[in-house]
Records
---
Amino acid sequence: MSTPVPSTFPDIEAIVVDLLRNRPELGGAVVDESPPAGFNGTQRAVIVSRRGGAWVEDLHVDQPLIELEVYGPDKTSAHVLTNAARAVLLRSRGLALGTSVITDVSEADGPRWQPDFVYAGANRYQCVLRMTVRTS
């Protein structure tokens, strides 16, 4: 008999935004699930999106793939901000947030420079991290 995926599983995007928001390492960057009003791709921002992953029934955990789209006023500052955000997440193993515990974080796709076709002047890096989250 299989166990259904819980309908109240936490919003991993919101958890990651909470982990990254207001961190001194991110130097006042906007951290959210979507770009802020008036965004043109040159502001300091970390946009968080779930890009897949899977519920692992036998372990009763979620293993989301989290994509960070990181922007800065220039390529160098975008890269520095990317590394700062990655470091915060990679250090979040063992962190309990309400009824959820982050049991593992690993890099699925390291930072890469990626043109942005929506924001022509953007300086953007993207990376993907795999998280393992257990909920009680």
---
Amino acid sequence: MSFFILGSHENSIDFRKRLLELANEHISKKLLSYGIEFTMKEPTLYVESPMTI
């Protein structure tokens, strides 16, 4: 599944951050249910300005 959230307003940025957090939580729980556990050593980077794709 792919989607884009267009906009650079603070609400859009907060929404994108929250969606990413939820996705990470869901993926981590799913992997843990298979007995796979890991920690992420690198931080998540947020680009808070519009960018051309």
---
Amino acid sequence: MTSDQNLALYTKLSGFRLVVLANRFGCDTDVSRKLHKRLLEGLEAAAGRIRTIMALERSILAGDDDHAAYRLEGEIEILGRFTIILLEELDIDFDTHEYRINGGDWSSALTADYTGVDIDYPELIALTDDELGSLAPIVKDITCETGIAVSASRVSNIRCSGS
């Protein structure tokens, strides 16, 4: 992206941040407040990435840093994969058959009994527009206008630890 595109993206992210802040006044549940808080944090993190990219671009132009081009390439790649996670995150390691929720401890997805071994991973279920409430159109606009993905999902099919 060019410097102008980065500046435009930064401006859009800042505008969405203001929209979410204003929208937060209508929160009536803890879940809604949590969703707004996480979206604000995600927008601020994305804006921080853009600021870093713009600083590295300035450093390259000035010739201050020999490694700036390499770091810029990495920052651009990270921004390209950036996702704002509003509720829950699920990591699955298919090699070890383990999963973790929200960066917690790894749990085994294997169960065994007299019929054999079963692998049962939990799954993410996207929140509906009703569950997102007033954030639903904002989340869609963020993704459409900035290209930054927003994940609003909850984990389902969590097994008891004793099973």
